[in-house]
Write a structure and sequence with these properties.
It is a single chain. This protein is mostly helical.
Length: 103
């Protein structure tokens, strides 16, 4: 049996969180408000991040932490400094890709 390196497991975890976030942001947070969270607050059949504002905020922070290594990787592949604070690495890479397409 081959080993499952911790780095690969971490990458798979991060990809899983990002995939879940894509669904959460597009479906469950659509139209979310304080009142929708309050309406779900006592329902144990609803996931905690869908019924507790603080849990949702922490989920967004987790998503941000999981996204950061992929943004750095994208920036490095595009030859962009990840420390450029004016624009996100993702937007810089998109901009660079658009300029290559117009040549």
């Amino acid at each position: 049996a081959s080993k499952y390196p911790i780095e690969l497991a971490q990458r798979h975890y991060q990809l899983g969180v990002l995939d879940w976030a894509r669904m959460v942001f597009s479906v469950f947070f659509k139209g979310a408000s304080v009142s929708t969270f309050a309406a779900r607050a006592s329902n144990p059949n609803v996931g905690f991040v869908y019924r507790d504002v603080e849990a949702s905020i922490e989920f967004v922070r987790r998503v941000d932490r999981c996204l950061a290594p992929f943004e750095r990787q994208l920036a490095m592949a595009a030859g962009i400094s990840a420390n450029d604070s004016r624009t996100s690495p993702t937007e810089l890479a998109r901009s660079r890709s658009r300029s290559r397409g117009s040549r």
